[in-house]
Amino acid sequence: MIKNPTFGSDAEVFIRTLTDEVFPSCGLVGGTKDKPRSLGEGYFIQEDNVLVEFNIPPVKTSKAFASAFLTALRKVKNELPPSVRIANFCSVSMNAAYIRHIVQAQVFGCDPDYNAWNMTQNDKPQAEDPLLRTAAAHVHIGWDEPIAEDQINLIKMADIFVSIPSIKESSDRVRRQLYGKAGCFRPKDYGVEHRVLDNYWIFDPVYATAVFNRYEKAIKAVNAKLQIDEEDVSKIQQAINTYDYNLGWELYKKYNTKLAVAPQGE
User: Fold this and answer.
1) How are beta strands 137-142 and 6-17 bridged, if at all?
2) How many CA atoms lie within 13 A of 8 on its CB side?
3) Out of 37-46, 102-111, 145-154, which region has the weakest mean confidence (pLDDT)?
4) Which pLDDT belongs to residue 3?
5) d(C-alpha 3, C-alpha 223), whole Å
6) Could you tell me if 1 and 149 are in contact, meaning their C-beta atoms sit under 8 angstroms apart?
7) 50 vs 29, 96, 174, 178, 251, CA distance in Å?
8) Cα–Cα distance for residue pair 125/171, rounded to 1 Å
9) Cα separation values, 143 from 5, 8, 38, 59, 167, Å
10) pTM above 0.90, yes or no
11) Tell me: the pLDDT tens digits for 54-80?
């Protein structure tokens, strides 16, 4: 059982100049993965390759979740020079002139992540376009005394109830060349980090609220011990990895109906 869940996130954003050119964050806001810089109230900021990365502290309600992103984005905006601003897209081919001589812009420092569907470590991403950079918004879910079975099941249910609806909402069709394929996650001592979503949803409280509610539905499915039919395992991954919303939506409707009639745990 997943009890007393909390929801946090680490998110990445591009920045752009006032003439709309995407610009590297290198040297602008400070902070690193090893030493993120505090913005107060549990928010931190850091430079990640050409991106600005920030977190929101763990919360328990959809209202607090959506509000936390507004607060975080405001805090990030206040840290930026007046000549740049936050960009609300999640993949871009950078201008080579901006990053050619910046070592940080060539460093991809992600720790390994895993595929919950086949329990293998994901390969280190390599793009055909060396200038391609992408931004995500990973969701961290914690709960009381997490066990491996619930961690894996939650990622699978999150793919059905969270990742599939995102296909239609996000306009990006590039990021999964590198990151965010179906089942992408990291186990955490407090729960899990679901790493499939890009960052489209963090800029709009309506989307942020919907994403929160979908994760709650995934938790409900785990606690109801909802079973995934064997013939659907590859279809779920195909829908997410190829952005096939029609296939995904049929699967979503199927499991949403199954959840509606499933007995709920205490």
Assistant:
1) antiparallel
2) 17
3) 102-111
4) 98
5) 9
6) no
7) 11, 12, 17, 15, 36
8) 21
9) 4, 12, 25, 12, 27
10) yes
11) 999 999 999 999 999 999 999 999 999
